[in-house]
Design brief:
The structure is a homodimer. Chain A is an all-alpha fold. Chain A is globular. At the A-B interface, helix 8, helix 9, helix 11 and helix 12 of A face helix 8, helix 9, helix 11 and helix 12 of B. The structure holds a DNA duplex.
Chain lengths: ~220, ~220
Amino acid sequence: MQELLKTVQIRVNDRIYAKDPDSSDLGRNIINESVEIIHEIGFDAFTFKKLAISLGTTESTVYRYFENKHRLLVYLTSWYWGWLEYKIVLGTSNLADPEEILQKIIAIISNPLSENQTHDLMSLEKLHNIIISESPKAFLTKLVETEVREGFFANFIRVNDRIIKVINEINPDYIHARTMASMLLDTVSNQWFLSLHFPSLTDVGMDNDRLAAFLTSITKRCLTS
Amino acid sequence: MQELLKTVQIRVNDRIYAKDPDSSDLGRNIINESVEIIHEIGFDAFTFKKLAISLGTTESTVYRYFENKHRLLVYLTSWYWGWLEYKIVLGTSNLADPEEILQKIIAIISNPLSENQTHDLMSLEKLHNIIISESPKAFLTKLVETEVREGFFANFIRVNDRIIKVINEINPDYIHARTMASMLLDTVSNQWFLSLHFPSLTDVGMDNDRLAAFLTSITKRCLTS
DNA sequence: AAAAAATAATAGTATTACTATCTTGTTTGC
DNA sequence: GCAAACAAGATAGTAATACTATTATTTTTT
């Protein structure tokens, strides 16, 4: 399974890119190097020019793959949620009890790198870091409406929907299933971010299981009627 | 009290600005007009040039008040949290029971504009909108570390600390007080945002009390031992 | 009323985010 | 096996952005 994870192709909405980066060596290099640079200098300072120089190519070549750097960030986040869904599907396939499934999902989203996973396309560790500190910028734009309509965030929505479904199985009468699901996903990123930069605002520290324990306690107390 | 709220001065860390915008007519116009423009075209498209033209002045004049547009956003968010703390202090001053206080705080943060408040400095409604859709950008920068150290986010941290304190009063043995507090604040913004752009991911819709009901149910179930 | 200080306007520059055009390589049909 | 068609990549721009430096004007202080 480790081997499988290393090379599995994650499906990303093809409207996000101009040309599929996963269809050529240069395209894959663009993704891999983007993750490196964004992780190092942050998304705001990241430019196609810097990326092109790093790759020994030119800006216009990069533009052939992505219309602009915002789309590239959308691609990375979409890829991440696709990868996470894959992890969730694999990790819960042998479970039947919805309560157990939810617990497992919480464990996975809270700590997606627990098993020291790798992938050929890019550094998962650095991608995870980018998701925590940059991915909200993919949503927070005046163009969200259009991008939602174009299905740019389908992978994220699908992970949400899976959690909603499990919550409904545990307690069909719970009236905040959707709110609970999106809160769980948002809280994971937010608490990771706080633990890095505002440690006084969270109890989640170096202890990786603390976050999962917190979220599990909430769902247990709220969903058992 | 309505009158009082209209003109009360909110304290903002003086390192955020180069010159206090609340100390001159032009400065106040800069704030007021910034809120209008950012609300209309979004923070990314907002520039000091557009602002200057709107005000009938020049870029360099704006730069005298704020080093860059990021600082201006930090100012707006800091002002917002200062204002919210003020609302919380006023709204809970007559309460003694910590459970009641927490409920009131949740009601205020979930729906801060409930009483159709106004302020001379800027449109609170538009500021609230900016907080929901742009304020994370104030945090999500490679410079957070420095900015935290300089106390740029002190107003936000203080609101957090107030909630932590109340939670500790309700249940001193609860080990996730900090995580719970920051989750409450983050969830409010996030759910507002989702209700606007990803309505399928939340149960919070046009019904303004639904969010408060959700958060109250969580705290009640988690904090009562 | 003159000197000092604060404020504003003018005119730049380096960088960014693209676009348009030209050149080279690669495939495809015959 | 080779020309035609097409895709990929390089070169050379441009308009806008985010500032900065310098000069001019107003306001305040003595």
